[in-house]
């Protein structure tokens, strides 16, 4: 039974259990406490979990670098401080996107600047700018990301992204995502089968091997997902073509219903970040983007094609009320006559790991979890 969660009829999400943890009726009731964080150092010293996760993480990093090396993508060193937020709804956006889950950044005071500086919640914008360099067509990073979100079973305030950007279209982008995902799983099964089995057992390993052997991620449009949700639940809220009613419960429910990992595409254009390209002549207007949802879990990869010309980007910047001075470098990138439209994605490292190991919470796959509760360990 791939993934850690089930969507219950009462609107809660239950945890199904693995070799280490028993089932939990409502995972939202399982809280991280200061006492747990205070005792974290002892856990690092004595628990059998952490050396296994350390080896698994090493293999994920190795598989990622190996794959991108064969692809010709270059690892790129990027800043963690910025004024350009990739998903700026909570900061700059107008009312139309205020209800999206993206993104509340963490503010810093930077020297004598009057405006606050943000910790980066994604490397994406800077990866796009990195492609302006001559003879560079594909780049990637493995970096920290920060969001001012209260931690829960599947959110950390600081987490890690594997992010890629290339001079490709969204169809090619999806192909690269699938190849990377499959390469990571293959190397993990080759090098870390015993480590993974510690969490999910022999049956879980067999399930994973079967998935790799018959690798499939079902592609489906968001509009069709809403239809299924309406038909299965009878709830009229899903008649509205909107992300307002598509959250954790819906992600778990739809993957369990279809019994597949999903690649959900074509979200409402003005409910996603400003840089998402529009699929031409779409009615209603939808973005050329896709979210990958782990079976029995949540989104762990977000991908999209970028707005490719300055006229359309300036129009989106106005709609989303972006401060033009802060986003000037990004806007300038579209003014060059030789600009080539790009696409890219971000893979949430800890979410990948939680889904793989069927752990009840995301902080239990992170050796040094950063949450809203405290800054220890």
Structural notes for this entry:
By secondary structure, the protein is of the alpha+beta class. It has one domain: BirA Bifunctional Protein, domain 2. Helices cover 35% and strands 16% of the residues. The protein is built from eleven helices and 13 strands. It has helices spanning 34-38, 40-46, 49-71, 124-130, 170-191, 193-213, 222-233, 248-258, 310-319, 328-333, 349-357; strands at 5-7, 13-15, 74-75, 81-82, 107-108, 117-119, 138-146, 158-166, 218-221, 262-265, 289-293, 299-305, 343-348. The strands form three sheets. The protein has an eight-stranded mixed beta sheet. The protein has a three-stranded antiparallel beta sheet with strand order 4-6-5, with no helix packed on it. Helix 3 crosses helix 6 and helix 5 (170-191) packs across helix 6 (193-213). It starts with a strand and ends in a 20-residue tail after the last helix. The relative contact order is 0.18. Mean pLDDT is 94; it is low at 93-101.
């Amino acid at each position: 039974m791939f993934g850690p969660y089930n969507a219950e009829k009462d609107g809660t999400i239950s945890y199904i259990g693995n070799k280490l943890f028993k089932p939990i009726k409502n995972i939202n009731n399982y809280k991280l406490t200061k006492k747990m964080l205070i005792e974290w150092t002892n856990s690092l010293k004595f628990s059998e979990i952490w050396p296994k996760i350390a080896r698994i993480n090493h293999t994920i990093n190795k598989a990622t670098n190996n794959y991108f090396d064969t692809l010709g993508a270059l690892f790129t060193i990027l800043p963690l401080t910025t004024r350009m937020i990739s998903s700026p709804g909570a900061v700059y956006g107008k009312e139309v996107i205020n209800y999206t889950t993206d993104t509340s950044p963490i503010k810093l005071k930077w020297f004598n600047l009057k405006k606050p500086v943000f910790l980066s919640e994604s490397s994406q914008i800077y990866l796009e700018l990195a492609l302006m360099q001559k003879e560079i067509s594909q780049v990637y990073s493995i970096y920290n990301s920060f969001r001012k979100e209260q931690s829960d079973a599947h959110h950390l305030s600081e987490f890690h992204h594997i992010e890629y950007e290339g001079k490709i279209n969204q169809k090619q982008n999806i192909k690269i995502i699938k190849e990377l995902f499959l390469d990571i799983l293959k190397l993990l099964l080759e090098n870390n089968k015993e480590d993974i089995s510690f969490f999910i057992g022999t049956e879980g390993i067999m399930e994973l091997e079967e998935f790799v052997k018959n690798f499939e991620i079902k592609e489906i449009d968001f509009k069709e997902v809403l239809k299924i949700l309406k038909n299965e639940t009878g709830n009229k809220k899903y008649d509205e073509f909107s992300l307002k009613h598509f959250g954790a419960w819906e992600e778990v429910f739809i993957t369990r219903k279809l019994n597949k990992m999903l690649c959900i595409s074509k979200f409402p254009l003005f409910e996603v970040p400003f840089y998402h390209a529009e699929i031409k002549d779409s009615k209603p207007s939808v973005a050329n983007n896709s979210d990958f949802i782990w079976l029995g879990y949540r989104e762990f990869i977000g991908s999209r094609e970028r707005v490719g010309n300055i006229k359309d980007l300036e129009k989106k910047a106005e709609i989303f009320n972006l401060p033009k001075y802060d986003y000037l470098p990004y806007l300038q990138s579209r003014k060059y006559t030789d600009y080539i439209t790009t696409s890219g994605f971000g893979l949430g490292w800890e979410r990948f790991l939680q889904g793989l190991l069927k752990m009840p919470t995301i902080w239990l796959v992170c050796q040094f979890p950063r949450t809203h509760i405290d800054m220890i360990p």
